[in-house]
Amino acid sequence: MNATQPHVLLVEDNPGDADLVRLRLVEGHSQAKIHCVNRLSDALAALSQEEPVLILLDLNLPDSRGADTFRKVMSHSPNIPIVVLSGQDDEALAINAVHHGVQDYLVKGGFSGQQLERSIRYAVERQALLAALEVTRKEQIEFKNRLLSHVSHELRTPLTCIHQYVSLMADGLSGPTTPEQDEHLKIALQGVSQLQAMIRDLLEATRAESGTMRVDPRCFDLANLVQQAVVMMKPAAQKKSIGLGAGIDAGLPLTFADPDRVLEVLINLIDNAIKFTPAEGSVLVNARMVETDPGTVYVSVSDTGCGISSEARPLIFERLYQQPGASDSSVRMGLGLGLFISKELIRLQNGKIWVATEPGMGSTFSFTLPAYSLATLLTPVITQDERLRNGIVMLRIELRSSVTLPHSKRKDIARQCLETLQRCVYIDKDLVLPPMNTTGPVETFFVVASTDMERSAIMIARIRGQLERIPGLSAPGVLTIAAAPLDLDADSSQAGGAGSAADDAASPSPAVPLEQQVQAVAARITTMVVQKLNDKPRCANNPNYAPNQKSRE
Amino acid sequence: MAKQKILVVDDDNNLVQALRVRLVANDFDIVSAGDGYAATVTAQKERPDLIILDLGLPAGDGYLVMERLHLHPKLQSVPVIVLSARDPETSQQRALMAGAFAYFQKPADNDELLQAIRVGLEPNAKTASA
Question: What is the complex's ipTM, to 2 decimals?
């Protein structure tokens, strides 16, 4: 494109109107070169090919009418200025377009060449200005975040100095102190503590805003964590004679989240509750399951404090919001970032956080976290599939976990799956499961399932012999061999049964969560095995199964 | 019984002095260094039983110091506690992988720091830089 000859895209379906525009352009001594199309689809295609400096846009086209037209053009090319050409009866529409980001409009038949030229020039300049402003805005935000990180880092050095020397005195290491001095030093150290918390909050909030906050979710026991939080906050509660307790559902399942971060949120909420509750009040932490939402754990912190007004309620999770009316006015409120940070932390762990409150009655802050579900985290995958003979299949199944589970946990789960699979085996199925120990990130089973009872005994012995020869493989033995042939029809209903059991058990029930989850995984494996048995044979019989020769994962 | 010797490395002299008072009161011998170069020299000369190391140092930062310690056959096994103003979220992993066995962010809780020192000085403590 020639830099001195700007190219303008004219989208106009009326040839007469188009000619008029061309005429006006010449009259206005505009340098612009016109490319004219008469449909929206052609306009979008032209925009993809070569970007004009401006679009002259008639809103009523054969394939698009009114507001839709400018919306579609703007979403396709948000950075190219648009001047709308409106009919005399369409001025309201044109003005609406300007409100939505169109740079200008001209009424057809009502503009001179000069006006057209000026309109084009100004529209291009304004768009460039907007783009520059956006760049500046982004730079400013980035600078602000860098500044805050830098400041919170630098503040630590003098803070450390104060902390070190005041605690030297408070610990009697600078000479004996009077009780009054001890009291004063303790108060000074409280100030240091608060400063430390503020600096930490500042850094966290900056991270939350710049999207660099990290969480590290894993499987943990929420009940323990709640107890821990209560123990940590008991002294602060006791100072105000506030009763702090916890109510935890029996059989609460394991939670899948970042325990350090959840503790942070709990401490923040309990700390707020204590601050905004008068002496002799109470704060209760609850962890429970909700029947209508079985895959989620609900945690709440309720207080008998002053509550939150309805004007304040939408603001409290925003940054820098500091609630007035704490019952102890000498307690500094901190930076007002705690709830903002907590909101981000919960969001990053796939939870929600909200408040129910009544001024004068107290508040309940609640948040949710995903329950730990083995069935969603562990996927059985068939990585090897041999039809040994008619009615006998051999499968290698790997339990792949979508998160890093510790080795001992994996072995545990594999063992439990195995035991459960044994129980899932019905008397007329024949499942032989020599589990294979791996050092890799998966647990692997070999499953030999058979409908042919006579042959299978020999087959299994042979397979076992061959498996025993694989280096690094420990095969602790073959499991039960069934006594009757497989009834395939009964099996499909059992497979169906296993399938639906898997669905139900995939969401942990409060009663026996982990075992049911393991059952769900085992049931899926059984279903897969049975499906394979029912498959028509795809390849020739291969009685001489030799695992060594097969490609391994 | 000979007192155990701790080398404190930090360019903030005030902090070094405060730590000195506290650690001497806890029956340790203290030597100190204010930059990366002096840290390595002093470590070689004094053979401390444990090192408390800042990361942001002139003349070779804490990581460089740990590298040099690691290369020295007699100093490899000296346990290192990092005490730094830097955010653990960005620095802790790197420090631990560089050979430190603990990471404390300033201002550190003095009791926890002392506890970590005692753990580091236990015989057969698995704290040597790998």
Answer: 0.90
